[in-house]
Amino acid sequence: MAYTKRAPPKTTRRTGKPKYVPRRRACVFCADKGKDITYKEPASLRRYISDRCKIEPRRRSGNCAKHQRAMALAIKRARHLALLPFVPTQMRRIGTATLRELHPL
User: What is the CA radius of gyration of the chain?
Assistant: First the structure.
């Protein structure tokens, strides 16, 4: 078996310092086997929704692919049952306001 030399870490052009490479976080649900993902607990699902009510991606939430799919399905079910919002509150207020209320001339 031949010895392979490791490549040096990538550096920035100007400073020569290594680039920041974020470490993958361990999945919360894989680490804690007793924790279930269910649509019936909207308080625990809110952690995985952004301020714009979008589902957070894996790189932000730290979930593995299996649990991210289950999380997305649970969030979608909770939205369908009106346990979670589809649209943030500030967008709802703007959407219901008339054009005259927003821009009085």
Answer: 22
Cβ 35 vs Cβ 28: under 8 Å: yes
What is this structure's pTM?
0.67
Which residues have C-beta within 8 Å of that of residue 56, sequence separation ≥ 6? 48, 49, 50
Phi-psi domain of 85 (left: phi exceeds 0; alpha: psi -120 through 50; beta: other): beta
Q: Which three-class secondary structure state does DSSP give residue 18?
A: strand
User: pLDDT for 13-51, tens place per residue?
Assistant: 677 777 777 676 789 899 988 889 999 999 999 999 999
> Cα separations (Å) of 56 from 37, 45, 50, 64, 68?
15, 11, 6, 13, 9
Residue type, 12: T
